[in-house]
Amino acid sequence: MKCCVIGLGVFGKNLAINLAQLGADVLAIDRREENISLIKDEVGAAVMMDFDDPTPLAHFPIAEMDAVVIAIGDDFESSMAFTMKVQELGAKSLACRVLSPMHERLLRLMKIDRLIVAEEVAARGLAHSLLMRGVVGGFDMGDAHSIIEARAPGLLVGKSLIDTGAIFKKAGVRIVTIKRLASGALGGLVKKSAYAAEKRRTMGVVALDEVFQKEDIFVLFGKEKKLRAFLDDYSGE
User: Fold this and answer.
1) Cα 37 vs. chain centroid, distance in angstroms?
2) 7 is in which domain, residue-wise?
């Protein structure tokens, strides 16, 4: 998958790095040399470009990108100019960071595929982490359902899905996958990344006999009330 992220502030930088870590070929663009330096070793390509003129975008394969994200967070005019240029170049899918109510209204009139209010995304994740025991991140899925990332409940450590299947079923919670600490060649934990507190690998579909480990992060899906009750009941605290 090919992605382009334009604007490498805190939101854009972390988005580009996360996309790259998930396997995407990322082109990252910003007007500040220091932002390019911070990310150049983390993505496929990092390019400095003057945001006053989006014309040089034509030199890049924007139409071949699976997704383009306008993540400019401090310049209304530049955001609009780059949005229009990316549309002109035939982007397959375009997402834009919203800067103001007027900006949002204009983007909707332009029929942008996806609008992003970065502060709302961060607020939702923080709300989940504050209200649910052991939660390190979360996504509101609508209709009172969420996907959360939570540290493995203490009472489930050392057990497997074979042992705990009835618990998950009764709680009305599904385990989507597990994010487990990665190991280095010598068996020790890898060094912490500059952009992530812990280096982890996503295990995919969890095998029935996979034993849960103390440092595991569970990715769980369910109704928010049931997720909260599940974590409270099995935390072991």
Assistant:
1) 22
2) 2-116
Whether the predicted model's global pTM rises above the 0.85 cut = no
**Token couple for 175:** 């385990």
Same domain, residue pair 125 and 219? yes
Question: What is the domain-level CATH number for residue 27?
Answer: 3.40.50.720
Place of tokens 């530049």: 78
H-run or E-run covering 34: helix 33-39
Task: Give the position of tokens 């935390």.
Answer: 235
Bridge partners of 148, per DSSP, are 138, 220
Instruction: Please check whether residues 23 and 112 belong to one and the same domain.
Output: yes
Contact 72, 41 (CB under 8 A): no
Residue count (the chain): 237
Per-residue pLDDT of the chain (237 residues; tens, 9 = 90+): 899 999 999 889 989 998 998 889 999 999 999 999 999 999 999 999 999 999 999 999 999 999 999 999 889 999 999 999 999 999 999 999 999 889 999 999 999 988 988 776 666 666 655 666 788 877 777 677 888 899 999 999 999 999 999 999 999 999 999 999 886 533 444 443 333 446 888 998 999 999 999 999 999 999 988 998 999 999 876
- Domain shared by 63 and 126, yes or no: no
